[in-house]
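User: Design a sequence. Structure:
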């Protein structure tokens, strides 16, 4: 049984927490896209962790963590992450890295920073983790797969050819120091030592696991709005954030994905540039940002303050639809307990017309939110473990949104911890 845990919105919906909770009943957790550019924050009995590359199952002895072929693999970051969790008392996890995963090269990170610098005020708000240059090279067929580390002569030759082209850009466009292919080769040999214990054919491993009836979780990074095809292009990430891509990025048959848990937060947040229709500003935003998530809405990777806003049913309905949602996980609901009234964006007004369909980017830039206001429940709901025990106004808020987005909310998260979770019956 394969399940995907993916985001409906702009990322930071709490996928890490949901994956960590669901991983209790899983055998394998797979990362299938993205890189170390975003992070999941997980709170459990070992402490609080920000994971960037490791799947959110690493805290369980019984879970094998897989980094699939679709991931942008930053080997030193992965090595550091493994070291940091084991230093904090987490037992050494079982990790498998696809031999077809491609590596984020040192120059990808440089090019990311140089390009943002060149763009100045027109920049994409990149986390400068090298993700866009990495995926550009992957699809331009000039990337490096992990398996290439094991053919030294071919690797040296390819480094020579690729640095030649990169150096033209470095010299003439960016006016920066040039790359030395020999130094890169030496660095890659160090990376090879770091990654070798984990490398295997993960697609074959997963295929066997499926045949044995194992439970596999595919863990998405970011959310629907950041998908390069269906999101708010060009303010998107460079790999598909959709459950459908889980099949490609993990190397499994698409029809094996039986449950798609789409995570959406009880209010909105986003990092980086791009249209954000229900965004809040000023005092109201500051208060929500301060109270939000677990210790405030600040980026897990960058520490940047996140933009925050009211729940957006238009974006979420669309976000759930393109994921192919079977179940919605509604998270961070406890945070809203301080509000007397809660606004919900139920439509967009674009050029004088109201729509509930999520528009393409140019029209989205002109959209103004249409709000409905619901009463707040004005109490702390952490610690509640059954749906019926939630305050009536809180249930009304959930059911209102459920109706507007059109997908069943079967998981409710009312705190950052593993046990802060309420399940409703799933039809998947
Ligand atoms: P992800 O990238 O989708 O995994 O999301 P992040 O980890 O970046 O952001 C979610 C933040 O919300 C983290 O700080 C979590 O610890 C926290 N969180 C997750 N679920 C809940 C919840 O139900 N309540 C509260 N208060 N915090 C939560």
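Assistant: Done.
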């Amino acid at each position: 049984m394969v399940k995907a845990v993916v985001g409906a919105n702009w990322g930071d919906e709490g996928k890490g927490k949901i994956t960590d909770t669901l991983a209790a009943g899983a055998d394998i957790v797979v990362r299938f896209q993205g890189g170390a550019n975003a992070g999941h924050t997980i709170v459990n009995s070992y402490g609080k962790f920000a994971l960037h590359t490791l799947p959110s199952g690493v805290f369980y002895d019984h879970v094998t963590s897989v980094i699939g072929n679709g991931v942008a693999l930053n080997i030193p970051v992965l090595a550091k992450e493994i070291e940091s969790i084991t230093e904090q008392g987490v037992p050494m996890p079982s990790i498998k890295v696809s031999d077809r995963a491609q590596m984020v090269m040192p120059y990808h990170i440089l090019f990311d920073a140089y390009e943002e610098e060149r763009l100045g005020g027109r920049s994409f708000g990149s986390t400068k983790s090298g993700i866009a240059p990495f995926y550009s090279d992957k699809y331009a067929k000039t990337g490096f797969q992990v398996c290439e580390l094991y053919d030294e002569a071919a690797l040296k030759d390819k480094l020579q050819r690729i640095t030649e082209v990169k150096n033209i850009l470095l010299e003439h466009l960016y006016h920066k120091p040039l790359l030395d292919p020999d130094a890169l080769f030496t660095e890659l040999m160090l990376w090879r030592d770091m990654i070798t214990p984990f490398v295997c054919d993960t697609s074959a491993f997963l295929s066997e696991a499926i045949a044995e009836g194992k439970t596999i979780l595919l863990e998405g990074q970011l959310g629907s709005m950041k998908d390069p095809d269906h999101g708010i292009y060009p303010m998107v990430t460079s790999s598909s954030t959709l459950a459908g891509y889980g099949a490609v990025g993990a190397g499994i048959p698409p029809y094996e994905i039986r449950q798609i848990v789409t995570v959406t937060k009880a209010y909105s947040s986003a990092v980086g540039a791009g249209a954000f229709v229900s965004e809040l500003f000023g005092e109201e935003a500051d208060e929500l940002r301060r109270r939000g998530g677990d210790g405030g809405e600040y980026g897990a990777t960058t520490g940047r303050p996140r933009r925050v806003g009211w729940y957006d049913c238009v974006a979420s309905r669309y976000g759930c639809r393109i994921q192919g949602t079977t179940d919605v996980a509604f998270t961070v609901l406890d945070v809203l307990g301080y509000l007397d009234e809660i606004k919900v964006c139920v439509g967009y007004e674009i050029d004088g017309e109201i729509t509930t369909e999520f528009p393409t980017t140019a029209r989205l830039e002109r959209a103004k939110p249409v709000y409905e206001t619901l009463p707040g429940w004005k109490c702390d709901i952490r610690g509640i473990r059954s749906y019926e025990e939630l305050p009536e106004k809180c249930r009304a808020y959930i059911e209102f949104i459920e109706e507007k987005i059109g997908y069943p909310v079967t998981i409710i998260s009312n705190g950052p911890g593993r046990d802060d979770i309420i399940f409703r019956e799933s039809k998947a």
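The longest strand covers residues 341-350. The CA atoms of residues 69 and 86 lie 25 Å apart.
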